[in-house]
UniProtKB/TrEMBL annotation:
InterPro entries: NT_sf, NTP_transf_5. It comes from Microbispora bryophytorum subsp. camponoti. Pfam families: NTP_transf_5 (PF14907). This is Nucleotidyltransferase family protein.
């Protein structure tokens, strides 16, 4: 890991801190998601941007809050997130739909406060986080290799039976769970009927 990637990570954590503190103060219902949430939970992902999951009706307040902190905001054509960029160009994704399902208040309520970049922020619960990573897997985005080390680092924090049950309809996501079992990263799962998420 060269010094450049350290600088990149530092810039991202600085942006994470500013945006997270602002959203927290404004009372936005949000939680850290994506690679930064994996990082907060002890994994070592490559950090490219900051991902926050939030309840859709709080999006306007979140955008207003970040704009007041000097972020430039943009609504991309995708209908599941909005974007904000700080002065350095670091990207913050405000995601209100994960794997084609709306982010719910219940999901945000399950988030756990974890100290990240010297600030306590709500971080998606580990089970929700892993589901949000693997449920969208498809033939076009089926990179098991980059997910393995992240999931391995968090495996003891995750309810794998729940993961298996939620992702059962997806051949790509359920095969990833089987792969974890075959590699003895997790114990064999039992798939119950309750596969609802979030």
């Amino acid at each position: 890991m060269g010094s450049h990637s350290h600088e990149v990570t530092d810039a991202i954590l600085e942006t994470l801190k500013r945006a997270g503190a602002g959203l927290k103060e404004a009372g936005v219902r949000f939680a850290l998601a994506g690679g930064c949430a994996g990082y907060a939970r002890g994994a070592a992902p490559s950090l490219h941007d900051v991902d926050f999951a939030l309840v859709e009706e709080d999006v306007p307040l979140a955008l207003k809050t970040l704009e007041s902190l000097g972020f430039r905001t943009a609504k991309p054509p995708e209908d599941w997130l909005v974007k904000a960029f700080d002065e350095e160009g670091v990207l913050v994704d405000l995601i209100f739909s994960l794997a084609d399902r709306p982010v719910t208040e219940a999901m945000i309520a399950r988030a756990q406060p974890i100290n990240t970049a010297a600030l306590s922020l709500p971080v998606l619960e580990a089970t929700d986080l892993v589901i949000s990573w693997i449920l969208p897997l498809s033939e076009h985005t089926c990179d098991y290799g980059s997910l393995l080390p992240m999931v391995r680092a968090m495996r003891e924090q995750v309810d794998w039976d729940r993961v298996a049950s939620v992702v059962a309809p997806s051949p790509y996501a359920s095969t990833f769970v089987t792969l974890l079992e075959r590699l003895h990263i997790i114990a064999p799962t039992t798939t119950g009927p309750d596969g609802t998420w979030p």
